[in-house]
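Proteins fold reproducibly. Consider a sample protein:
=====
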Amino acid sequence: MALCRGSDSGRLASRAGIVAGGSRGVRAAIARCFVGRVLIPGILDEEGAALAAKLGDAVGYAHLDVGRRA
């Protein structure tokens, strides 16, 4: 994946991160670059959960709508 290549490709290795809106598109590609633990919060539950399951045990999905106030 081109996004994960280059001189900075090791910067995400063994890191933990939160990729808001990471269920699809560019943010999903960013979530795939993480080698450590990743949380993908978003409102696309089926897509987010499927991506998290595909990426492995170190990745989780949580429903989170940042457009609504609690």
In short: Strands lie at 17-18, 38-42, 59-63.
